[in-house]
Structure formats: structure tokens, C-alpha cells
């Protein structure tokens, strides 16, 4: 599958995956993501991620990173944004911790 996202769409995809990985997207997580991307991008990507299976999401993230250049600093910034999504609602649950480890490995 060829992924033709803008950088903003990719980052929204990753952050929305982080927000939804525990099957509960909170208002605080939503607000944080909307502080990073515009509402049109958010809505477009939100529709896609709701329908994607988890294994497809991980593969999409890997494939995008292979096809697009992300500097170490950009990857670190994205990891920090993922952390902010997880902490946006004040708690980090077991599923979020597990997904964070997976996303860190992909983004290294």
C-alpha cells in the first residue's frame, strides 16, 4: 500500500493512534492533537484511523517512515508529542505504555 500523506497527516495519524490505542479517546487528548494539527487534517485522519486495524496502523507508520525522511530531532519531537497525548488526560494506562514502547521502537 502506498501512503501519500502530508507530514501533518502522518503526525495526526500517529497521535490519533496513541489517543485511541486504549479504545478511549478523551477530550483532553483530542484538544492536544488539535493544538498540533488543523481541524480539517484531524477529521480526515480520524476517519481513516477509526477503520484501520491495529496491525495496518503499525505497518502504515513504518512504511511512511521508510518513504520519508525524518531527522532524529523530528522523531524525538514526535515521541514527545506522543507522551503529551498519553498524559493529556492525567493518566497513562497499561495499553498506552505498551503502545508507547512499540512506537518508540518504530521511531528510533
Amino acid at each position: 500500500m502506498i501512503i501519500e500523506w502530508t507530514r501533518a497527516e502522518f503526525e495526526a495519524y500517529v497521535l490519533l493512534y496513541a489517543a485511541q490505542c486504549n479504545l478511549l479517546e478523551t477530550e483532553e487528548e483530542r484538544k492536544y492533537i488539535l493544538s498540533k494539527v488543523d481541524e480539517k487534517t484531524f477529521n480526515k485522519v480520524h476517519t481513516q484511523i477509526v477503520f484501520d486495524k491495529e496491525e495496518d496502523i503499525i505497518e502504515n507508520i513504518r512504511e511512511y517512515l521508510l518513504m520519508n525522511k525524518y531527522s532524529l530531532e523530528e522523531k524525538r519531537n514526535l515521541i514527545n508529542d506522543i507522551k503529551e497525548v498519553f498524559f493529556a488526560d492525567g493518566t497513562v494506562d497499561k495499553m498506552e505504555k505498551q503502545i508507547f514502547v512499540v512506537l518508540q521502537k518504530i521511531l528510533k
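The radius of gyration is 13 Å. The mean pLDDT is 93.
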